[in-house]
């Protein structure tokens, strides 16, 4: 049986809403196969970017209002996508939403964007809120994409996504583990904006900056990097542990220093775990300077795939997680998140 699904993904980088239309079916050996059929990114307007960026400052009433408004926004964009590609026979929409709060140690994570609003506008089955169940089960609620890495991208020793944060998944002793490595674009974009750019294209700004080695040492000494996985990061952690060290520094030098810091952390993980071949995805893959710095620190073979995989792998995997959910198959791995057991997560409406 072939399943057609839309995956909706909004990352912490706030580049826009990614929508991926893909088909999934099991082959004769029972292995899942996929095809990306259509994919688009809907850049956020300045109004939406600001609403999402400042969501952590909202009152409870305002946060509930955002949850409804953003749910209808997601439904509108899904309808635009369906109309643009003249799609028929969509089995489901799987929506990640946009993360506002992520505090698994307190047993909660909040992704705004009410799935019921999506269904009201699209009239299609919707799967949403993939993370909360895992957090309630003692997990980090992240990373979730390792189920897709395991079942769709097993030809690589490891998968690294570079977005707001960098996260990795790989097999260890027969189990797939995954964890966040360090912040990347969530910090780089912040300082690029201070010099009038939305992001540091190709790492060109960082390339011209000067690495502050005292600051670099301070960043590399943060306790998170010594913790054992599973572990995950959120904007709250960045605001508390990263930004206070950087805000009063020259923005170009911060870009140079933080790019070096992130490259060191990624390479350290690759080397420590003897990763032979890894695929890079996510917007940070286009930061050629960042990749250059990583390659100076590791002999791991880095594969940069075709653009649709770079740009839409996360949206693809959320679509896949929705398909697994409606089939009552495991879509979250406890070895990746630290929850009490593998489980099937997501609210279906």
TrEMBL record:
PANTHER family: ANHYDRO-N-ACETYLMURAMIC ACID KINASE. Its EC number is 2.7.1.170. This is Anhydro-N-acetylmuramic acid kinase. It comes from the Bacteria. One of its GO terms (biological process) is amino sugar metabolic process. Keywords: Kinase, Transferase. It is an enzyme of class 2 (transferase). GO terms for molecular function: ATP binding; kinase activity; phosphotransferase activity, alcohol group as acceptor. The keyword Transferase applies. It comes from Kaistella carnis.
